[in-house]
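FIELD: query
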Amino acid sequence: MATMADVARSAGVSVATVSHVLNGTRPVLPHTRQAVLDAIDALGYTPNTLARSLVTARTHSIGLAVSAISNPYFTEILQGVEAAALDSGYSLLIADPHDDPRHERKVVQLLHERRVDGMIVAPSADPRELLAYLGRHNVPTVLLDRLVDPPAGSAPRFDQVCAENAEPTAGLVTHLTGLGHRRIGLVAGLPGLSTTSERVSGYRHGLAAAGLPHDERLVVHGDSDAAGGERATAALLSLAAPPTALVTANNAMTIGALRALRDRGLSVPDDIALCCFDDFAWADLFSPRLTAVAQPSKELGAEAVRILLERLAAPDRPAKTVRLPCAFVHRTSCGCPEVPAPDGERRRAQNPPPQHRKGTTS
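FIELD: result
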């Protein structure tokens, strides 16, 4: 097996120069750098990552803590994180906090003890212990998907990346009111999550834009999973005046809602219209096909890596929050006829809600 000394001899340089090329610890003339890289390639030299980390105090690894990795949304985020990390020469260590604050704190500590250079974390509904740990140990961190407000009067401590939530949800409600619906139920997510509160806010704004009152009985929390979505939908259907349309606030709860409707022999959209937040691979295979808000999952993961690497390069820069736009995917579960589109392209509404990418620095 080739050693660093072998590379140095082949390239006609010192071992220190080879080290500088590998670790980026000092500028090296272009032709010298190329000679070292050619020698590495010719000899098949593999750097000792552990030894390099001892020299540079970097492991070139990123810790990723997201719950429900089996959820297609988070699976696509994981793909985006992994691809962007590998492109930048970083490996990935993954943990599932299970949306449990205590377990979340534990797995993040374990990732930190493995000397990851930084973390990407989708926080739970009660992230106080998590944030205290990250802050106490000054861990470079990007909060993903779920935002955390800083204490009153304080500047944000952590970078954050998420999708737009309120405006796309309002767009779903506006679409349903435009079809004549006046009682629209919302199967909301787990209380305490920013995604939940923002989508509830968007739902209310959509009602207000149509001049409709907000009826608290039409909002039931499904706790962001399929079983909760099923329970919430059953509760909505049991109302004396049940909704004529539903908005489900994530893909897992959409599955639960469809089970509840099936169990009651209700047909979508003939008996009740349905729109969902989160598009997923098989939404196009349901009958009817699901009208949905599609989040830029892979782009969110890649953006989180990009911002984390920015943080590693400039530890003292102000924290920022970046939001990415969603897309309204128009299908038939809302009761609309099929919208023709070229093969291989998602069908979109003719006038989807306007979306803008927003980045704020605090």
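FIELD: remark
The mean pLDDT is 88.
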